[in-house]
Specification:
Distance between the termini: 39 Å
Helix content: 40-55%
Number of helices: 10
Radius of gyration: 16 Å
Strand content: under 5%
Number of strands: 0
Length: 143
């Protein structure tokens, strides 16, 4: 399976996010998450999330560009997490919580210590609220 994965057209993109794929570490990370949390994490990792680049690809947006930044700037996961000035305040809070690690896609999408901070960022931006609603911070306690 690992040999087939290395020849997959998705391998180069995903190996930038998680070079250890296929791995048990992602299953461990995602296995303890609430459905909305896991959905958000997976969609961020594969760039199939309701941001204009993906929405345009599936004919749900007239443009793949960021409506805040305008022409020449694709609204994709990298832009949403690290570049769009619309979310500078939220990004600053993320940076205060995580330090320089907050500038790493690999860290944000793979490290369990970043997950609650990432969800706080996503909730605070409200950019994905139509799809995910308010993403819970932690797994609901069982009674």
């Amino acid at each position: 399976w690992k040999k087939e994965w290395k020849h997959s057209p998705r391998h180069p993109r995903m190996s930038n996010i998680d070079p250890s794929l296929p791995s048990k570490s992602f299953l461990k990370l995602a296995g303890s998450l609430h459905k909305k949390q896991a959905g958000l994490l997976i969609q961020l990792r594969i760039n199939h999330i309701p941001l204009n680049q993906h929405l345009h690809h599936i004919n749900r947006s007239d443009t793949p560009m960021c409506l805040q930044c305008g022409e020449g700037t694709l609204e994709n996961v990298h832009h949403f997490l690290f570049q769009c000035p619309r979310y500078d305040r939220e990004r600053h809070k993320l940076f205060l919580a995580l330090g320089r690690k907050a500038t790493s896609t690999n860290f944000l999408l793979n490290d369990s210590s970043a997950q609650n901070h990432l969800r706080k960022y996503v909730n605070a931006t409200k950019r994905l609220k139509d799809t995910f609603g308010e993403v819970p911070m932690s797994y609901p306690q069982r009674k």
